[in-house]
Request: fold
Amino acid sequence: AQRVTQPEKLLSVFKGAPVELKCNYSYSGSPELFWYVQYSRQRLQLLLRHISRESIKGFTADLNKGETSFHLKKPFAQEEDSAMYYCALTPGANSKLTFGKGITLSVRP
Amino acid sequence: ETGVTQTPRHLVMGMTNKKSLKCEQHLGHNAMYWYKQSAKKPLELMFVYSLEERVENNSVPSRFSPECPNSSHLFLHLHTLQPEDSALYLCASSQDRGNYNSPLHFGNGTRLTVT
Reply:
């Protein structure tokens, strides 16, 4: 069975500092990976997904199959990035998402 | 209203009560889900419905009973719950049941407290 591990519960940085939110997964095949975000008083929503190779709000995430990681990165954090971030994995079509426990990012002024 | 709407936002119930959570989506999606979000735990998938047919039941106790009368509505009927069932219950929908190409759209959730 697949598993998603987010080893840290909280990351606190100052505005302008780089951010890296860690995500590791265990799955023997080639999964699709996602990052979901929940801002204060808003609903959980998709931030980005590996298959799209996109940068959203300055965030990027690279799939490293050797290290089975999908870390979320941003070079310069903004206060509005403060939120709860969840990494998620699906093995493929018609398969469900498995979520990590999430990490709270706090960006201080 | 567009998106996924859940009611009520908050619910307090005793262990002997019967209540229902409601979810409605106006996105034209074919799949709907119930998730449980507890403190210090990952999001737990409870049920999946695809085209009104239950396709997944993740060993959820029978005191939780889902109902999907049509592709736009999803209910979670609750009876004789336990205090440990207190959590945030999230409804979500997606275009298709496979989340590979169909991202989840979540509601705001129902905060349930069982006393």
Remarks:
- Chain B touches chain A at residues 4, 40-43, 45, 48, 56, 90, 96-101, 103-109 (CB under 8 Å).
